[in-house]
C-alpha cells in the first residue's frame, strides 16, 4: 500500500526558537539493533520535515535529551527553510470552488481552469494552451456541481488510460508477475494505491495529476506487493531493484500530495 504519509513509534514533543518563531518537533525513539558481535550498532539522530509541516526527529531510545537538542539546533536553519517552503505550498491548498482562474494539475503540469458558456455546444472538458477548458451549454444554479462532475470524470477517464499504458510499459520489469493484473481507479483520501491479496490493484485517480515518474513509482510499489505483501526489507530491496531512485520520487510526490488530493 502506498500511503500519503506515515509515522511510527512513540513520540515526545519539544520546541526551539528560531528568529521570532517557536518551532515544535517530535522525537521518535527507536531501539538500537544488535550487531553480529553482540555490540550495539550506533544509530544516528535523523531529522525530517514532512510536507504537512511536521518536524520529526528519530533517535536511539537511549539518546541524551541534550544531544538531541544540539543535533536539532545544528540544522535549525535547514528546518526553518524547509518549513517555509512547505508552507508556501500549503498556501495554495484551498477547497476548490470550480470557478475560472483556479489551478488544476495534470501529469505534473499546472493548468488554469476556464469555464465558458456555449448554447450550441455539448458539455465538454479539454486542455488547450495551458488551460483546462470546461464548456457548459448554459450557466445555472447547478453550474459548480456540473463543472466539478465534468472535471472529475475527465480526470478518471484520463487516469484509466494513462495508468493502463504505464502498467503495460512497466510490467516487463516485474518478472514475478504473471499476466496483466486487473486494476480499478478508485478515489482514496489517504492512499495513492493498494494491492489486494489476490493481486488486484487499485489506483487513486488524483495520481494522474502527478508526473509520470511518480505514477510509475506507485504502480511499481503495488506490483512489488504481489510478491511481498508487507513492507519487509525484502519488499524494499525488490522495489529498489526496479526503481533505484524511488525515495526521491516518493518525496517529490509527498511534497505535492496536499495539492493533488485537494478537490
TrEMBL record:
<dbReference type="Pfam" id="PF01863">
    <property type="entry name" value="YgjP-like"/>
</dbReference>
<feature type="domain" description="YgjP-like metallopeptidase">
    <location>
        <begin position="43"/>
        <end position="254"/>
    </location>
</feature>
<protein>
    <submittedName>
        <fullName>M48 family peptidase</fullName>
    </submittedName>
</protein>
<dbReference type="InterPro" id="IPR002725">
    <property type="entry name" value="YgjP-like_metallopeptidase"/>
</dbReference>
<dbReference type="InterPro" id="IPR053136">
    <property type="entry name" value="UTP_pyrophosphatase-like"/>
</dbReference>
